[in-house]
């Protein structure tokens, strides 16, 4: 079956004279985790509201499981929304209902018989690790626990698509990790397609298999995450967003960088390696073959979308054309950031 | 204290309770739907229609602006039509309710407006209809505030029911006026005042307790 879960075709959304989304097109296949990133005001929430059928775009089509939601009548929309789970930045739990009551609500709305609800609620509580907390009130939970309830509630009716709007932005780093792990696990085990919106590159790096970069309502990048991270050149917007989580030349060293190689100095280079190449002992080989010293100043090897990915700032002594050629065999996108003259 | 006085006060207390309870109930039955309509018809509401919301607000405010004593008098023909007489406890319920409905509507509107619109969005994303949003979000989330508003309404009604004594409504206010003001019986008047204070204190305490019991945040 090659029907995409989501097909966005030439979607535009205006607020008065302001264009929030301008001719946006992309698609999401089943089981993907698409990260949508952009600065504040880029149009991320506007896009998500259109995808969740809360707002209608002014132009274009949005197909969810092949069905155009922009032309659906009200009754169809109500049914369609039950195929989409929504997770919110500020959880949006009802304070008038217990944890179990909050999870029960989408079931009640979908008309699940009263007798069938407790079992489904128990399954969902177990899935998000809150089995012992069903009778608590939301106010008694921590932020991370509230978001788990939010996720359980979003999954209640077995949605085809999970939309997360800054789902971890209100959480501390540790809790963010736990929630991202939970989303990744749900994606793996239920094969659920997820679109998550964030302004934090770190969130994307950790779980998004695909990435859309939005800027002022335009898509500036749309590719697998690893491809974008490892690409030789990126758009300025992507570069700026990436720089948050990428290794940087230490400021003290940056001040000393010059453009021309200096005798007895070092070159400062940036190396990015995706996939298996990331594990190769490239710098040791370099030392053995050319008798130069290579030192990692910043960065290391992490995982992006389940693949190893190395991103490092390295200093190399005696940098020359041969060494450059040697290194670009491994990393064609290698960048020489500058040279540091030896201090005499 | 004479048996007679105790009987008088007990009867008057019962009449006041009936007047306040019945008009309080009607205030909720009439005022809550009005408040929901005013909230729903606002811009960005469940069924936006700002001109209608403004018109409804105006009608509510006009009713609230009429002094209760005047409402009592101009409603006499209406009361006669509904109750058959314009005298007595049952008759007083008509003007009391009509004053309490817009009063409670405005108080309820404030509580309903304070419900986080993101919760409404959350239930819309689940495929909730407008009625489900009213039933599962607006009313339950506003309930502690609605109960607090009803408490204020009941206490205001207690005061107003005393004024209804002027048209022979009966109740504690009527007793205070007849014995205290017209016959200078300070003993009865003071007793009535004490009973009224206890009456109001009980409503307030019960209202606070219920409102707190319903509040989970
Ligand atoms: N309801 C609205 N009315 C008017 N302008 C809006 C509305 N919602 C969003 N916008 C505008 O659209 C642009 C995109 O907003 P949004 O989608 O919320 O961005 P993001 O979520 O990426 O921060 C912003 O310039 C914002 O001011
Ligand atoms: Mg946003």
Automatic annotation (TrEMBL), chain A:
Pfam families listed in its UniProt record: ABC_tran, NIL
A molecular function GO annotation: ATP binding
InterPro entries: AAA+_ATPase (IPR003593), ABC_transporter-like_ATP-bd (IPR003439), ABC_transporter-like_CS (IPR017871), ACT-like_dom_sf (IPR045865), MetN_ABC (IPR041701), MetN_ABC_transporter-like (IPR050086), NIL_domain (IPR018449), P-loop_NTPase (IPR027417)
Residue intervals of the ABC transporter domain: 6-241
GO CC entries: plasma membrane
Keywords: Amino-acid transport, ATP-binding, Cell membrane, Membrane, Nucleotide-binding, Translocase, Transport
GO biological process: amino acid transport
Role, per record: Part of the ABC transporter FtsEX involved in cellular division. Important for assembly or stability of the septal ring.
Similarity field: Belongs to the ABC transporter superfamily.
Protein name: Cell division ATP-binding protein FtsE
Record organism: Komagataeibacter xylinus (Gluconacetobacter xylinus)
TrEMBL record, chain B:
Keywords, ordered alphabetically: Cell membrane, Membrane, Transmembrane, Transmembrane helix, Transport
Subcellular location per the Swiss-Prot or TrEMBL entry: Cell membrane
Keyword Transcription regulation: no
Entry-linked PANTHER family: ABC TRANSPORTER PERMEASE, D-METHIONINE TRANSPORT SYSTEM PERMEASE PROTEIN METI-RELATED
Protein name (record): ABC transporter permease
Entry's Gene Ontology BP terms: D-methionine transmembrane transport
Cross-referenced Pfam families: BPD_transp_1
Membrane-crossing residue ranges in chain numbering: 18-40, 52-76, 82-105, 142-168, 188-210
GO cellular component: plasma membrane
Major localisation: membrane
UniProt keyword annotation of Transport present: yes
Originating species: Komagataeibacter xylinus
Membrane topology listed for this record: Multi-pass membrane protein
CDD domains according to UniProt: TM_PBP2
